[in-house]
Amino acid sequence: MEKKFMLGNEAIARGAVEAGVKVVAGYPGTPATEIVDHCAQFPGVYAEWSANEKHAFEVAAGASLTNRRSMAVMKHNGTNAAADFLMHINFTGVRAGMVLISADDPGGLSSQCEEDTRILINSYAHLPVFDPSSVQEAYAMTKAAFALSEQTELVFALRPVMRINHAGGMVEYEATVPGDRSPEFVTDRKRFVMSAVVEKESGGELRPKMRHRWLNGKQAELKAVMEQSPFNWIEPGEGDTGFIGCGIGYAFLKEAEQIHGAKLPILKLSTLPLPEQKVLSFVKGLKKVVVFEEIEPVVENLIKKMCFENKIVLEVLGRGNYLPQEGELTANLVLNAIRSALADKPYEAAPQGKYIPARTRTQCSGCSHRGLLIALKDVVRKNGGIVTGDIGCHDAGTFEPMNLQSTIFCMGSSIPMAYGIKAAGFAKPVYALIGDSTFFHNGLTGLASAIYNAADITVIIAYNSTTAMTGFQPHPGSSSNLNSRINPMDPGAVCEAMGAKVFRCNPYSVEETIAVITEATAAKGVKVVIAEALCYLKFGRDGQISYVPKQVKVDAESCNGCSVCVRTFGCPAITIINNKAVIEESACNGCGVCVFVCKRGAIK
Amino acid sequence: MKFDLVIAGVGGQGNIVASQAIAQCAMDAGFTVVNTETKGAAQRGGSVLSHVRLADREIYSPVVPHGQADVLLGFEPLEALRYINILSKGGKYIINMAPVPTILANMGIDTYPSEQEILSEVAARGLTGYRINATQAAKELGNVLLTNVIMLGAFTAIADILPAEAILHKLLSMVDPKFHEADIRAFRRGREMIAAQL
Lengths: 604, 198
Prior knowledge:
- The structure holds 2 protein chains of 2 kinds.
- Chain A is α/β, with parallel strands linked by helices.
- Chain A has 4 domains: 2-227, Rossmann fold; 233-342, Rossmann fold, CATH 3.40.50; 368-546, 3-Layer(aba) Sandwich (Rossmann fold), CATH 3.40.50.970; 548-604, Alpha-Beta Plaits.
- The longest helix of chain A has 21 residues, at 207-227.
- Chain A is globular, with a radius of gyration of 27 Å.
- Chain B has a single domain (2-195), classed as Pyruvate-ferredoxin Oxidoreductase, domain 3 (3-Layer(aba) Sandwich), CATH 3.40.920.10.
- Chain B has helices at residues 15-28, 77-82, 103-106, 115-124, 134-140, 147-158, 164-174, 180-195, and strands at 2-10, 32-38, 47-55, 69-74, 87-96, 128-132.
- Chain B is of the alpha/beta class.
- Chain B contains 8 helices and 6 strands, in the order βαβββαβααβαααα.
- The interface between A and B is large, with 47 and 44 residues.
């Protein structure tokens, strides 16, 4: 055994590689992104960024059917995008061991929503889920999941939360990689062709029903596996109130127990399905249990069902009826709940804290999005148009001081929502603002739908050649994939081929961008403006920037302190000191976009 | 034995480097170490909190619970205030008193609290510690980017959990040798700034 300090995502990658994973596919998404990057560093492992999570899942499935272990990596939103495939591969099962990493983000610290993908994967698709409580366990579970997947022929899922993905800890690991096996594809249409086919041997029943029966039949096997699992255990303690820690909930429970200072009866549960006998043996003699889990009352409800079926009278408290129903667990929350439960009192939420001035996210100094946002804002201020937004760094254009996009939902929503607004009869122009990576992820089909239905909208693609928000992963519009240099797919050429009228501009030139968007607005049909400029933060390091840097200064004589530059623009390099705009030289990257903002000409 | 440290700052101030130097040094010394960072939007001027937990036994939560930190290093006063409740009653803070204004405060939507307001909020909780102007000292040493090294040096003046020299060596091993001389001076300067207040 070797020992090394590693982040949760590195530990998951290592576990997969030590289990013999050969094909890894994902789409970037906090907090799961680094898993794919780490896998790519191991020799003999094919890793890729797919265009979206559904395709990543499908790539991994193709590899599994070809007898090689595979893994699909995504965050919770991605699992939603892949849900259609999930609801088929559960019925077919897999050949070589296959693992799905579905990282949840309780509290939505880096997400547009918070959700519990255990529901999608286990309650809905009836596939097994491991919920790690530590970095060490994330490693061990990932590794174990491959063998179990192969044994049961089912996809195994790991549901780490952000506090596991992004936590660092000491990991003991084996540092061995099993021998490779040769790729082999054996056609088995009865399993891998999911269609409403009549099954003669089953008395003429249809295949979907037969495969559903197969999946339901697998549940007993899974329960037996979980009953023996080393990831669930009982810790004896004092009193007739028991505490159940699931995944990271167990970590917070143990932390709270130490502060509380007395040994509590604890059941640690990290698997779905639950180990029923273990749960029943734990609750024997207890009057009450409190379940700590992220995010929804999944285990809590299963235990209630188990008690009902076994005629056990037990008070089961948790996120459904006792603890806060939203947001992240903390050790303090758990401690508070332990004290309340032991005193037979309702859980008392901590009082709302006093507001401390927030640091809102914004575009970096020198970011090309800021030029695009201010240009588009100028256009819609004059014509009363609406901008639908999408996911990516440009989404900060919805915050103060830009206040530009009126909607943000999920990947690719901007385009169909924009023409939905027109379909409802909105007379003024509507713009969909989307990034390049998001466009290739789930924007293409929305655009096809818009063009097919003869919509009249202007789509603006912020083409900065990288997936910037998650840490600069390449995408189909970049000049490389994870393995080699490629010819980038130009989104403009793609849109043109689809039948859109395509316009181009450099967003660092604000006047030019305004003119181009205005021209596009006046044209009929689906127009696409490609606002092309490299991501400053990624490419600026190598001296590749899409503007001519200039030394921007404020002429204190001409500045009347109106602060329009701060109130409407929000570049982090500009502040107002003693009633005059000041550009902090160390923070300014010389993009010069702010020159446009000052109508007095004080910024030069 | 356990020791919990949190470092609060603004993206770009270098608190992750500082926390990694301490974490790696603690591992060399044989402690169990767990850490995490809340960063997400850090590159874009957001609030960043680093947690470093050391113990001679198992550590469960990667996040330091409220009321448990032995030391809070505030690289920026508003960020120190934001996370001050993590400090334990007997813990100590070191706050760099140079403010980094927020966008909303610049716009007049929020008001950045005065130094007096921040200090009285902290004092109202019965917490004690040290205030230094590390940003100013870093500028005097010729580079504002030395602020985190000054804060790291200051930390070693109040916490004897790890030898100061070991932390300095660990830090130097993580940075380009051409910065070593400046880093050593900044580290010593941080120690002196606290020593002057002891």
